[in-house]
Amino acid sequence: MNKIKITLFVFVLASILDIIGIIFSIQILVYIFKPLIILSLLFLYVFSLPKRLKWYVMALELCFFGDVFLMFSGELFFIAGLVSFLIAHVLFIKIVISRIKEVNFLKIIFSTLPFLSVFSLLIFTLKDSLHEMLWPVIIYGLTIATFGIISLISYLETKSNKSIWMLIGAIVFMVSDSLLAINKFQNPAHSLEVIVMATYVLAQYFIYRSMISETEKSSNQH
Questions:
Q1: Which residues of 141-161 are buried (b: 16+ CB within 10 A; e: fewer)?
Q2: pLDDT for the residue numbered 75
Q3: Is residue 222 predicted with pLDDT exceeding 50?
Q4: Which of 44, 51, 140, 213 is most deeply buried (CB count within 10 A of its CB)?
Q5: pLDDT, tens digit, for every residue of 159-170?
Q6: Residue 143 Cα distances to 73, 74, 84, 85, 222, angstroms
Q7: What is d(CA 196, CA 179) in angstroms, rounded to the nearest whole number?
């Protein structure tokens, strides 16, 4: 087995064991394996490409810290995690914007409507439960909605493998974070915690696939 396959195995194993820890409330599994998910994905990316994009590496590092912060209870840790993921999403947006060569007004409108609608519905649903967290959640929600919008614009322009992987990743990330917000601020449910983590892992993997898709294509051509 080469190091890419080994690291992918570690990523999958860490994800499964973390989710098992959440399902059966085995905290030691969560504390050990949750940080390993993004750490192994970071190494997987490093091993997959001879030349790495620093913005994506930084985004993964921020997601790692975000995961660690969110393992602990308390508003301060939640805000620290929120800020970490907020900056990571800004970096994801930067990466996708750099892929867009040209865009027209109709594509912007078409791309904006679905994500802005979901964001508006979520805020409307949660607004009475958010209290002092209303504006931080609005800012974070707008950022991830922008990630989705930009990803859809990129897909409509190129229809490439890397753009579809990124779009799917952005959509699944938005689903994961929306369920996280509902679970934290409105209807806490153990089953939601499991779904949040599963969708988060999938979103991160889809984004990783987008980041290596050009290399995969060139390798297949050889």
A1: bebbbbbbbbbbbbbbbeebe
A2: 86
A3: no
A4: 44
A5: 999 999 999 999
A6: 24, 23, 12, 10, 39
A7: 6
